Amino acid sequence: MHYKVFLIKYAEIGIKGKNRYLFEDMLLHQIKNILKDVEGEFAVYKTQGRVFVEAKSDYDYDELMDALSRVFGITQIAPVLVSEEKDFEKLAELSEEYLRYEYPGDKHTFKVNCRRADKGFPMNSQEVNAALGEKLLERFPEYTVDVHNPEIMLSVEIRERIFIYAKTYKGPGGMPVGTGGKAMLLLSGGIDSPVAGYMIAKRGVKIDAVYFHAPPYTSERAKQKVIDLAKIVSRYTGPIYLHIINFTDIQLYIYEKCPHDELTIIMRRYMMRIAEKLAKDNDCLGLITGESIGQVASQTMNSLAATNEVCELPVYRPLIAFDKQEIIEISNRIGTFETSILPYEDCCTIFVAKHPVTKPNIGVIRKHEHNLDERIEELVKTALDTDEVIVVR
Ligand code: ATP
Ligand code: MG
Questions:
Q1: Which distant-in-sequence residues (6+ apart) come within 8 Å of 74 by Cβ?
Q2: 188: CA distance to ligand 1 center in Å?
Q3: Which of 67, 124, 296, 356 is 20 to 30 Å from 141 at the Cα level?
């Protein structure tokens, strides 16, 4: 059997009134976007509070389902059989066809669940449930009805056409990208930040990203790895504007002027400052990092306080309470893990002290940053001026 129509379900909580249209229109937009990369012609439309994808040509089922499973906002995808004729006999015939295809074998428990949006249909929902149930018991003598916990819940929706389905496949949930503003992701080559970006995008937020590299201390391959990670994340979020900031001179200057056990913190503070500047220049409403309390010295509560205080914009840290193992699970699921663990150094590992401070004193850090007064402004300006932007898709 070759499905032509897919019913797209989304969570409707909290999207009443005007927000509902925004949500639905953005969902349609994002589905259309993702389907550009799927071979075949598709129509994407909504009618009566339902979103549909309809194939207008040959297509690959697995490829289509994989694409739809990456669109935030979708909770479930149901391949449906459609009857253009609104006729009970036709409905019964298609229901049989559906069940024979999707549930091979004879013995199943089932229940019919009809929804009649078209009140012009001559039978009401209860009558359809009863009559179709009976009809199917005739066609499948080994089936039994179970109204409480059926193996097969056969849904029948009577609208401008009749839709039949039982199996649904999980979408990623969340909100369509574009319903929630934009944020700047600090994207390193590690495991955490791609996951952090994915999680915030899942709430409907569009993602820009910034990567700080330090050539020649960090290689072209490390940079390519970050581009590759952005590419994987963009499979869910749509195109990402990735800013590459050359951080070498700033790092060397900090290395020269500041106590080495404070290098990481001071460096992180400059990353945040630069990221915030980029964020503001690009209409982002916040920053995103992959930080998690206690994961490393620069992520103790004290260190987080020290890096946080240089920003005015909110810093979103979706992984803040996650264990590494939990982060790795998501990373595996979204497909970034294998790339993240490639061994190319990131810029922090070159300049890390043997014993970095774990409880930095903000007052002391600020004081030591004054050692940088002479040149830091100019170095930051140059870094921003030489920003290389890559559109990753
Ligand atoms: P990740 O796995 O995301 O690299 P990490 O465990 O290595 O995280 P840190 O190196 O302390 O942690 O970095 C904390 C956060 O700071 C990262 O999650 C990321 O958001 C940001 N960050 C670190 N290094 C860079 C970099 N070179 N470019 C951009 N952002 C960075
Ligand atoms: Mg890192």
A1: 8, 9, 10, 27, 31, 68, 171, 172, 173
A2: 5
A3: 124
H helices of the chain, in order, are: 18-35, 61-68, 88-102, 125-139, 192-202, 220-237, 248-257, 263-281, 301-308, 324-334, 337-340, 347-350, 362-369, 376-385
- Same domain for 149 and 115, yes or no, is yes
Do both 148 and 243 map to the same domain? no
The 10s digit of each residue's pLDDT in 320-334 is 999 999 999 999 999
Q: Residue 349 domain-assigned?
A: yes
Q: What pLDDT is recorded for position 288?
A: 98
Among 134, 150, 170, the domain boundary falls at: 170
Q: Is 69 exposed, middle or buried (0-12, 13-18, 19+ CB in 10 A)?
A: middle
Residues in the chain, pLDDT under 50:
none
- Angle CA 156–159–165, to nearest 5: 25
Distance 179 CA to ligand 1 centre (A): 27
Residue 291 C-alpha to ligand 2 middle, in angstroms?
A: 9
Residues 13, 128 share a domain: yes
Atom of ligand 1 nearest to the CA of 288: 20
CATH label of the domain that carries residue 351: 3.40.50.620
- 3-class DSSP assignment, residue 328: helix
pLDDT of residue 370: 98
Task: Classify 157 as helix, strand or coil.
Answer: strand
Rounded distance from Cα 199 to ligand 1 centre (Å): 16
What pLDDT is attached to residue 392?
98
Q: Which residues line ligand 1 at a C-beta cut-off of 6 Å? A: 186-188, 190-193, 210-212, 271, 289-291, 295-296, 298-299, 346-348
Structural domains counted in the chain: 2
User: The CATH number of the domain where 115 resides is what?
Assistant: 3.30.2130.30
Task: Look at residue 176 and tell me if it is in a domain.
Answer: no
Q: Is residue 177 part of a domain?
A: no
Range of the domain at 342: 182-392
- Please tell me the residue having the least CA distance from ligand 1 atom 14: 291
How do 50-55 and 182-186 pair as beta strands?
unpaired
Can you read off the two tokens belonging to residue 314?
A: 């909110």
The answer to whether residues 61 and 160 belong to one domain is yes
pLDDT at 349 (0 to 100)? 62
Last residue of a domain, one of 121, 143, 170: 170
User: Quick one: tokens of 177?
Assistant: 């990208």
